[in-house]
Structure prediction request, 292 residues.
Amino acid sequence: MVWFAQNGFFRIYRFITRKQQFLCKGVQKQMENNERKNEIEIDLVPILKAIWSKLWLIVLVGVLVAAMAFAATKIFIKPTYRCGFTAYVNNQHSSESLSNQDISAGKQLVDTYVTVIRSNKILTAAAESVGLDIPIATLKKTVTASVQGETEVIAVNVEHRDPQTAYILANAIANTAPAYMSDIVEGSSMKIIDYPVYSDKRYKPSYIMYSLLGFLLGAVLIIIKVIVNTLTDDKVKNLQEIEERFSLPILGVIPDVLQAADEKGKGYYAYGYGYGGRSSSKSKDKGKQGEK
Prediction:
């Protein structure tokens, strides 16, 4: 009988112990989940307030970096000038009227014309006709051609650091290409629509674009720094922050006695903490004057 009683109590004790362990583990997991949620959740209000409070610094650094980008662009990047012309190409060489079939064939071959006009043969002949000694690799980088929409019109542009050279080379290509085009592409013709016009207006680089990029770079760096400082700052700055962070009510506040004494300069706190300092020194001065 005693053995059954002891065995029963032992089983009950084991059941209660396991239940307690299970409950403890559940509470611990719940606390860990809450901590993870708190760690993952980021309050955007303090971050936005911090960014707004440092707005003057963000603008100032952005302007400084923009000025540096503008100066660096103007000093280290040489300007490039552009000059070009437009031409109409088709697959009808004679002066007869064009049919719809000729127009359709011309649209299909316009990509071929763009490639042919940048061929070594045409570019070398154009450069030699005006006495320019430019390597073919440089010519291919300098000259670009593109199709204007869904038409048979192509635009040829020459980019060079010297506006006069760009103008001369563009004119040379415009005068040389039509004759070579009809020989290379059988049954085709090329007519110049707009001849090159000399311009000393800078094409690249864009000072405005580089300045804007510099401003954005400086502003973004300061914003990142402000966000990092806000997220890593664990100091409590006011009572409201304590209630929001820990969800606990404020029972009371202990005043800073020394600060109150320095601010007021009189009163109970000032008297209590100034008795041994300022008051005693004054009494000593009065005593010395009485002895005299």
Observations:
- DSSP finds eleven helices and five strands in the chain.
- Confidence is low (pLDDT under 50) at residues 1-6, 268-284.
- The radius of gyration is 42 Å.
- The longest helix spans residues 2-40.
